[in-house]
Please model this.
Amino acid sequence: MNILEAQKIHKSYGNKFNKQEVLSGIDMSIVKGEFVSIMGASGSGKTTLLNVLSSIDKINSGTIMIEGKNITDMKEKQLAEFRKYHLGFIFQEYNLLDTLTVKENILLPLSITKTTPREANQKFEVIAKELGIYEIKDKYPNEISGGQKQRTSAARSFIHEPSIIFADEPTGALDSKSATDLLNKLSELNKKRDATIVMVTHDPVAASFCNRVIFIKDGQIYSQLYKGDESRQNFFKDIMKTQSVLGGVHSEA
Amino acid sequence: MKLNQLIFRNLRKNLKNYYLYVFALIFSAALYFSFVTLQYDPSMDQVTGSIKGAAAIRTASILLVAIVTIFLLYANTIFIKRRSKEIGLFQLIGMTKNKIFRILSTENFILYFGSLLFGILIGFAVSKLIIMILFKITGINAIATLHFSKTAFIQTLIVFAVIYLFIMLMNYLFIKRQTILSLFRLVSTTEGKLKKMSIFEIIIGIVGILLVIFGYYLSSKLFEGDFTSIMSLFITMISILASVIIGTYLFYKSSVRFILNIIRKKKNGYLNINDVLSLSSIMFRMKSNALLLTIITTISALAIGLLSLSYISYYSAEKTAENQVPSNFSITNSKDVETFKTALDRNNIKYTEKRIDIIKANTNITNIIDVNINNLTTSLDKFPLAVVSEKAVNNLNLSSNETLFTGYNDLLQSFMTLKDSGQIKLMSKNKVINLTYLGLDKKFIIPSHFTSGLPTVLVDEKVFETLKKDLDQSIQKDSTVYYGINISNESSLEKANDIFIEKHLNEHGANASRLDVINNQKKTMGLIMFIVGFLGLTFLITSGCILYFKQMDESVDEKPNYTILRKLGFSHRDLLRGIRFKQIFNFGIPLVIGLIHSYFAVQSGWFIFGTEVWTPMIIVMVLYAILYSIFGILSILYYKKVIKDAL
Model:
């Protein structure tokens, strides 16, 4: 079952005299339970793609369907409503509220649903233990490490069991150990909870944790790689190969 | 881009961003200029009259300068902080600190003196209106003219130029002290790190609340006579002030956080959007704002308290005059009464006349009095009071061993409280009469000239006659009779008053016209009320602006939070609801505490100032609250814009 379907999405910035097309007709679909990463060089439009897929940014033309609902013609208020229930976010710069404790940050998305405090507490305990942040639940973001912050952010995106989770360079600000740690947790959660995750990254190691990697170049899909039954090491090599072709300067040009 | 262009561009951009700063500048300049104009206005001589009035206005203008200076300096600190990034950038591209300072100074100079001149213009325009208001409340019939005072203009320029120098000095120190790195980091490090509540903090929080309550308790006891000498009264007042102010400070420092923390603990981590935007954000900042909030609260309380008290005395002018002079005209000798009556008849003014015989007699009231002042000059077993026959009051029939007291000044009452009943002794020169005291009536029936505010003793006609035959001459007043003339038709009262003055009746010792007494009272109290009102308004607006600036500052700091929340799917409206909640706290806490403080202050001593407390106090409080909340609403509008821009 396709959870996300995008057709011919175009997105450009600037006014009509100085137009810069960032996405030029992208078609893609994501199946439930997939862990997909989007890769591309700087300026290839991968973050813009994530933003439009996650309804934070508007597209100029095309359609995006999430769980059969067309989000392109929703009003701002409906979109907010949609994000609340169906989407989860993990950002590079964590985006935790400094004024809230770890637990309060994680429970934030639940406060708008009709979850009872007891139920919320149970959900919190499960996810916090899975991500190994239960012990720091009463600490404030400025008292914990970057890896812990990012796991808190991840817990927040999982807690309300959204249809799809968008992650924008989640390992970008982490050291390699914390990054590996986080990616392991993400792929565990992906399998265990059958959660759909779309991740933007420029790091091939991070991408090798996924089931599928989509390469973007100049606003279009350049190629896709499926992991299949390959080992992570081999998949990583494949990614590296594609990336070097993608990013390399063609000698014949 | 040339330097001049840069200055010009900055200016244009800042004008949009800092419109409230410009507004504050214009406002304070206008206020100050019109006040100083008032000081030098020739038509003011009538109002100020005495040296005291002029001194009051001068003191007020100094206070005004102090308020305006503090306000402008504070506003400047916020705005320079906002521009730290820009300063860092200039430094980064190789400008020297001196050059940056020059840019800022020039920019500030244009902005500052431009607003100043504009403010003076507005001040000039409204000065006539202000003088008209002053004439109206002091009851003076004079024509207010628009009068441009050069002295006032120069004084305003000098005062604001000095303030400008202060601001420049501050900016200079600010720029000097900064490195490029710290300039970039400034915004994120201003608020202290959030820590958990310690036990110590909880104790401080509780102590804060207790101190405030203790202060209130003391203030309610202040005039109830538990403190018997002037010295202890003074010490008590100081302790009230100290405990309330320190308590308020601790309240902001810890108690608010402490209370909110309890609420937050109860939620067990499950906060909704309103809690996130209000509770946690207020807790986050309350501690660093404690001093500012304490100052704002204390001065608000002071302003509301003084405004209430001066309005109480103004409002009670008529009532007080009625107590002092029970009829329109009070005359104490028969010759003057005849002169006045003939003059009234000649002018066809109808009137009623009342004659009351008054004698002074020593009384022994030790049985019915609670004395609170030890060192009383007269002893209570030989206490001279004015005695009047029951005839003076309609439908009163006392038996020969009964007495009723009437008309007792509120202030004196608080020091010497009368019991509900008891036995008193009335002494003529040679005899002692025992009487049963029935109670105290509120009505004043004879002028305060005879009573000095003490109660009047009403006795049976026969007792009165006995006393009269056996008078103790040594304690009698120069007159033993009071003629009260009441003008039947309200509209001819003023004419009668003119006659009263024309015949020089007001110059004879104890004669009095109630209208004159009222007007005099209104004139003095009106001037005081005007000055207090002026300062109060200035304070209200400056403190409102400071809170607003503070919120502007906070909203920019919190903008990333709004971005996160909106990405998470909280709509614009969800956030705004939370913000409204937050602003109710941010503006409401200082307001409510200020109101409560002033309530207790007014309650403890209002009777010194007048006879009516509730109406004037409530009017002042409601007006203050309404004007104050305008700033809260403005800040919500600003937040609205910030939230909209957040995604």
